[in-house]
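Question thread 4412

I'm putting together a teaching handout and wanted feedback from people who do this every day. The idea is simple: show students a protein as raw sequence, then show them the structure tokens that encode its fold, then repeat with a second protein so they can compare. Below is the first pair exactly as I plan to print it.
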Amino acid sequence: MDIRRVQMTGGSSFIVTLPKDWAESVGLKKNDPLRLNPQQDGSIIITTADSADSSTCVTRIIDVEGLTDANFIFRMLVGAYMSGFGLIEVVSSSRLSNTVLDVVGKMTQMAIGIEIIEEYDNKIVLKDLVDPSEMKMGKSVERMRVLVRNMLTDVTSALKENDSSFIDDIIARDGDVDRLGWLITRHTNMFQRDVGLLKRIGMDHSEITSNYTISRIIERIGDHAVLMSKNIRKIIGHEGHNDLRNEAAKLCDATISVFAKSFATISGSDPKSASDCANECRDLSEITKNLNEYVHGKDPDISLSINLMTSSLRRICEYSMDLAELAINLIMGKSEKKVVKRVS
């Protein structure tokens, strides 16, 4: 850490010198403009003027020469996308294989905003066409919440109506949740690197971090909705399990309720309400274990399916409790007047 003392010039202006090593490393010269971005925590971030929106023009080159593992190639593409690169070049010294072409095509279908802008025998160039300032993180998180809530509702409907047709919709929606999760991760990385972009969207680092954390929690809840949809297949379509289905549906309804309450606390201002919600989530997490009592003496496959479903319900309650506890952290981090004490 380099500590420098504030000095005064002209009798009224404060000045502080910049580290020479840093200035030379970024090519700073006399009379070059700098951007000063005050932060809510009282700090200030200094960047060169030409660094604004720099993340949108950074290129990541992926050499796929000799690679045949489609999963590995796909993971590299997803990693480059979520890291925030504006351009992704897939290159090879020889002609690109059909495996690579198929993977790139799959990637453009799954990822939001990425498109092929150039294609040759040995190179494909992908570009992000989405303006991060136009894709509000809060709205993306809200859409994830709605999708996951609908997934959980479909699990309940499948149980109540004894109808497995709801399950396919659940799995399809999970793909949309994942795509939004990738986009939020991408924008989080872009905003962390590009202060100018962060300033343009009117958010600070704490808001970006909290939105990213919320999106990750919601994504995991969605994963458990998919697991539940797969595990209830054993008890759907059989009239002999009506009591079991009804009990499971009641617990699903209660779980949807605490998930909705916990998410609502994020935008609230009452830490007591958020704490009460966290306690409700914790209590319901214990109650879900009672579902296992309904499968004593039943077919082992039925028992296993219910046990796995119970585990997912418990995890959703715990994730909902995480949301409520995050809400408390956010509420306590806000204040009308911040007092900064100097430690000598």
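The second pair follows. I'd like the answer to focus on this one:
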Amino acid sequence: MKKIACLLSLILYFLSTPVFAQDDVIVMRINGKDVYRSEFEYNYNKNNTDGVIDKKTIAEYTDLFINYKLKVEEALDAKLDTMTSYQQEFRSYRDQQIRPLLVTPEAEETEVQKYYNQMLEQLEGKELLQPAHIFVHLTQQSTPEQQTAAKARIDSIYTVLQGGTDFSELAMKSSDDQGTAQRGGVIGWIGPKQLLKEIEDKLYAMQVGEISEPMLSTVGWHILKLMDKKPLEPYDTLAPRIRQFLEQRGMKDKIATEVVEGMATNSGKTVDEIMDMEAERLAAADQELKYLIQEYHDGLLLYEICQRTVWDPAAKDTASLERFFKVNKKAYAYAKPHYSGALLQATSPAVLKQVKKALKGKDESLWAGIVKSTFNKDSVQVRFERRNFEQGENAMVDSLAFGIKAGKTRLSQKFPAVGIIGRKLKKGPQYWTDVNSQVVTDYQAMKEQEFVNALRRRYKIILYKENLDTVNNH
């Protein structure tokens, strides 16, 4: 999820050597590669719409854009774009956009018409029926006593129906088919070969509104009612619904697969080669698509280079994280006292005492495993919640850790014994692990800035300010 979120927030930009209009001007050159105004302008406008909270000036955005370009250049120099894993992931993202474009309206219409014709064939010239039933379940392995009881029950229901009771109301109360009972027994529109043959034959012989006598099938007893019947609607009427249904079942993907595989067979090329060619052709005709493909291409590279160079190393360097925390400890000071530890709710005071004894002196990261393996292996004896509790956040912790009585605390009847184990943090966290995620995030941000600074020293950057001044002003 982090990768997808990162990709969606990245800056889109063109391939480095596209064909531009004659009045397009170069706004910057990074590592010898020209960036045209159209590229910069598109991305600036896309990322600074009216809905953006932190809108950037062109000068502010220029710095962000340069940083992005530098990271991509570093990834290219590291040849990350040649990795099989990268190429597979990029093609996967790209093809999600390309494949639907290979499907013509005519091909979709053919699939919809084909499905409609299949519906007609399945009807075998018959009408559609809307039946309802009241069902009494009876297995083939049922005893004679169970068979007798089931027959008596269905006969009793039928007698009540004959007395004038509403079929729908009785189905809701008495039918064993819970799926249809809540709809008054209505099964829905059906055609031939969709129900048991004996039931289907009976229904096609009935008139609308007619209620059958109890009949036995291989699964139990039924009382049938034919609610309605109709011929299949004309193609023009059903086509929109069929199209929606087929789209939900991957119609475009199915057609695209057939198209690509056909092109590959006829040309002697591989499917990947065909997709590369089609992506190039379609992107050349659709600038928006070109930007989107480039977003995937460069966004994945940026993510990979940052993950390898900054994010992963920073997150795993516990010694540096600890030093960073100590230097910046004031930044993590608490506005309110915290309790770092675990809230324990046990089935009895004796179990609570045993839990505390088992956890005492052990590394806090092991606590959850100890509780699970020792006390909750066969049945749950302890509720366990470990984190930093801010004063005022949890009434039980407030009472036990800070002596604050905030009214009567409602205890669980199953887990009446409550205790805590840990430490009070009055001014701020004691260890960097007390604010793990925040420290890691801040340290990664610092290392990423160092990374960008190094890239700015390594790669040559030329800005053409007079041309940048014409962005959105030409």
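Top answer:
Good format. For the second protein you could add a caption like this: The chain has a mean pLDDT of 91. The two ends are 40 Å apart (CA to CA).
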